[in-house]
């Protein structure tokens, strides 16, 4: 096995504030703005001189998995791979209100976007399998609890519907892992992503009996299994070489050769 020392950078989603609305915890006025923020930040890290020759692999869980796919869509040739953990390509039907209620809530979003009135199951109860982790999440002041705000729910639903319709557009190498007993995001759509995506290198793992939060909310022995699979996949990607860097170097050499030839002709 190749030994690799990853540089890990994490972005806390920015506090959201509309011009006429004070900051509201858990409020997402625009998912597109989140994608732009993440893209700008991670790109700035990758473009630093000391990181230029390093591989660029994104990892996201749940909504973060959706973010990874949207970052790839924004810059299809930029990222060397993605690790998708229970990605939000489709919100589980049991987590969504009835269609009639969704239509009503969508209209209300334009009037009271920050109100926390979206009905649904308690995400802490259905996402985190280990009771000790559940209690830890409930006691963490940085973790959002309670019902979703209207605009946040609207944005998440629209993103998941959009991703589900465009799975075939995914072209970068990826690993997707999903808990078989996930009640938050739909594991069958992760399998469909694996089957439909245009990527040349992809892997799908379905974990029996595991819930939604695979990297934090499961029992320790299960978390270890998930991370072993993730690390093994990343190791294989690194061992296979950096095709993106090779392509960039070839393009740079071709451009240099073209410019040199043009200069020579002018001199002649």
UniProtKB/TrEMBL annotation:
The protein's enzyme class: transferase
Record InterPro entries: AB_hydrolase_fold, Hydrolase_4, MAG_DAG_Lipase
Biased composition (Basic and acidic residues): 245-257
Keyword Chloroplast attached: no
GO cellular component: membrane
Keyword annotations of the record: Acyltransferase, Signal, Transferase
This protein's record includes keyword Repressor: no
MF terms in GO: 2-acylglycerol O-acyltransferase activity; lipase activity
Bias (Polar residues): 258-268
E.C. no: 2.3.1.22
Stretches for region Disordered: 245-268
SUPFAM superfamilies: alpha/beta-Hydrolases (SSF53474)
Residues in the signal sequence: 1-18
Domain Serine aminopeptidase S33: 24-215
Database matches in PANTHER family: PHOSPHOLIPASE-RELATED
Descriptive protein name: 2-acylglycerol O-acyltransferase
């Amino acid at each position: 096995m190749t030994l690799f020392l990853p540089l890990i950078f994490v972005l806390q989603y920015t506090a959201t504030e509309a011009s006429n609305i004070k900051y509201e915890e858990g409020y997402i006025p625009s998912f597109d703005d989140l994608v732009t923020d993440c893209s700008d930040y991670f790109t700035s890290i990758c473009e630093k001189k000391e990181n230029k020759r390093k591989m660029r692999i994104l990892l996201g869980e749940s909504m973060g998995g959706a973010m990874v796919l949207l970052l790839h869509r924004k810059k299809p040739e930029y990222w060397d791979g993605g690790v998708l953990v229970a990605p939000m390509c489709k919100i589980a039907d049991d987590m969504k209100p009835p269609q009639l209620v969704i239509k009503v809530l969508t209209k209300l979003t334009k009037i009271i976007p920050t109100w926390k009135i979206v009905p649904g199951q308690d995400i802490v109860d259905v996402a985190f399998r280990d009771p000790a982790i559940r209690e830890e999440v409930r006691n963490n002041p940085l973790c959002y609890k309670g019902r979703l705000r209207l605009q946040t729910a609207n944005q998440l639903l629209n993103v998941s519907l959009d991703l589900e319709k465009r799975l075939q557009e995914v072209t970068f190498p990826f690993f997707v892992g999903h808990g078989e007993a996930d009640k938050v995001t739909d594991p069958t759509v992760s399998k469909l992503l694996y089957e439909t995506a245009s990527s040349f290198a992809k892997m799908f793992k379905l974990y029996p009996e595991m819930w939604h939060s695979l990297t934090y909310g499961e029992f320790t022995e299960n978390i270890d299994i998930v991370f072993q699979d993730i690390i093994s996949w990343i190791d294989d990607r690194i061992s296979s070489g950096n095709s993106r860097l090779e392509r960039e170097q070839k393009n740079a050499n071709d451009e240099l050769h073209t410019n040199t030839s043009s200069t020579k002709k002018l001199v002649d």
